[in-house]
Structure formats: C-alpha cells, structure tokens
Write a structure and sequence with these properties.
The chain has 315 residues and is of the alpha/beta class. It has nine helices and 13 strands. The longest helix is centred in the C-terminal third of the chain and has 27 residues, at 288-314.
C-alpha cells in the first residue's frame, strides 16, 4: 500500500471562510467524525480570488473557478486532504490529479426571491431594483419582467441580506439552498418556479473534491455519496462542459431523476433576457452525461451559439 493510501490520524478540510462555506465544511466535518470517531478532522480556511474581489462583477474578472482556484492549489500541494465546495462554483473541467470524490444529497436547487415586505416577483413595483451577481439570474428575471432594474450585488449571504434590509434594493435573489442550510428560510418571499428561473448547474449540491490517488480519503468520504444527486449533477455538468461555460455565464440546467428516467432542462439566454433558448431531453439514467451533451447540442442548434459568443467576446 502506498503512503497516499495508508490510514492517517488527521484530515484537513479546505474551505472558504464565508458563513455558508463554513457551515458546509462543518457539516462534512461532523459526518466524517461520525464515520471515523478516532480521526481528527480539522478545517483550514482559504481565501479565494472570488472572496478578495468584491467590487467588480465576477463575469468581468473571469468567473470560472474564482471561488476554487486557491483551494485546488492547496489540494495539489497536499496542504489539505479534501475540499468542500458549492457544486455550482466548480468549473466543468478540474485540474489534473483532482476529482469530485463525493456528492452528498442535494438541498433545494431553486432560486429564492427575498423582499422586505414579502412580495413575490409578480407583485414587485414597476422598475423595481433587484440585486444579484448572477448573469443567469439577471437574464431570466428580465425575460420574465423587462421593467426590472438589475443591480450588482456581491458579498456573503449575511451581507446581501443586510443590504436588502437597508433599502438598497427592492428585492434580491439568492440560492434557496444556502438560506435553508443557514436556517434563514424565513427570509424567503418566494422560491422562484423552475419555469421562471432555472437554477445554475449543480445548484443546491455540495462537491467534495480530493486527489485521485488518495485512496484513504476517497474510501472514507464515499460513504457520504448520494447516487441520485451525482447522476443529476453529472448530466448538468456535461451540459456545461459542452457549452464551455463558466459559473457566471447565463447558462442554466436542472436534471430530475424519476426511477430509471432522467430529464434534463437546459437554457441559454442573452443578458437582457430577450433571446431565450430552452429545451429538455429525457432518457435512461445510464446515459446521464450523454443527455447533458445532447441538450447542449440542441441549445446550440437553436441559437445559443451567437449568444454565448457575444458574451464571451464582451467579457
């Protein structure tokens, strides 16, 4: 047995330092302690480029991998043994030597609208200011309501909530999963229906990343795997990979597994929401990644290609 695969007394989890990232890492830490009570599991906070750049839209500074690059570098250096990410932050292609070793069960994948007075999207006043840092959310909100004024909103979940409460926005949009994990679901005015706002690739799921050659960590963490979540997320990520998209491009995708049947809904939209290409495909769960690729091909064939080219050209 190689040194990499031998049992050890301590595991180090790499994580961002935000409240939500720490909750996610601490949840994994707790699960691993239950699985291996004699194992010391510690957290190492790592500041990423996405955390450092707070005053510029992520799409303007290369959205792909901004929240994972430094953490992945620490993995490759063996400063940490595994990393806990929000799956939607992980680029479609990982660095050589790293892999997603586990995907636990998914939380609510939907986008959540938050307002000060509990109004839903339809009830927002004409020209309402809505805060989001996501071009995907922007495109779909403007497709639903052309009158909305979309404003950049960066920062951690608690920072964004504070800005709403300080009347800087009429509404903000966040991932429902993060709010629910932090116990803040009472702030949600409306979980946006999937036909209004299709989620980001992998939204609501956690991705536990590790080194391909670390058999000890892979065997231990595999016990947290939720197979149906992995199948649906892999279909979504195949869509993202074929479209060569990053986390800040207006690409959306959500897969649902019912028995042996998987259905993937995919979308590409222009930033103003006026051009909107959406399609879905169903098939066997054994074809999950192929379904993702085929949905991407269908989107490209229906007009997504020039939309993406314009966005990449302007970035």
């Amino acid at each position: 047995m190689s040194i990499a695969n031998q049992a050890r007394s301590t595991l180090v989890i790499g994580t961002r330092g935000s409240q939500l990232a720490l909750w996610q890492a601490e949840w994994v830490q707790g699960q691993l302690k239950n699985l291996a009570p004699d194992l010391s599991v510690v957290l190492k906070r790592i500041q990423t480029s996405g955390d450092k750049i707070q005053d510029v839209p992520l799409a303007k500074v290369g959205g792909k991998g901004l929240f994972v690059k430094e953490i992945e570098e620490a993995l490759l250096r063996k400063d940490i043994d595994l990393a806990v990410h929000s799956m939607k932050d992980l680029p479609a292609v990982l660095p050589n030597g790293l892999t997603i070793i586990c995907i636990p069960e998914r939380e609510d994948p939907r986008d959540a609208l938050l307002t000060r007075d509990g109004k839903n999207l339809d009830a927002l006043p004409l020209g309402a200011q809505v805060g989001t840092s996501s071009l995907r959310r922007q495109a779909q909100l403007l497709h639903a309501r052309t009158d909305l004024q979309i404003e950049m909103l960066r920062g951690n979940v608690d920072t964004r909530l504070r800005k709403l409460q300080e009347n800087q926005f009429d509404a903000i949009v966040l991932a429902a999963s993060g709010l629910k994990r932090l116990g803040w679901e009472t702030h949600i005015s409306e979980c946006l229906p999937l036909d209004v706002s299709l989620p980001a690739i992998g939204q609501g799921a956690l991705g536990i990343e590790g080194r391909e050659d670390d058999g000890f960590v892979r065997d231990l963490v595999a016990r947290l795997e939720h197979y149906p979540t992995r199948i649906t997320v892999m279909a979504e990520r195949a869509l993202l990979k074929r479209l060569e998209g990053g986390c800040q491009v207006p690409i959306a995708g959500h897969a649902v597994l019912q028995g042996e049947n998987l259905t993937l809904d995919g979308l590409v939209a222009s930033l103003d929401g006026k051009r909107y290409v959406r399609c879905s495909l169903s098939g066997s769960l054994s074809e999950a990644e192929s379904i993702g690729t085929h949905v991407a091909e269908e989107l490209l064939g229906r007009g997504a290609q020039p939309i993406l080219q314009e966005i990449y050209g302007a970035a």
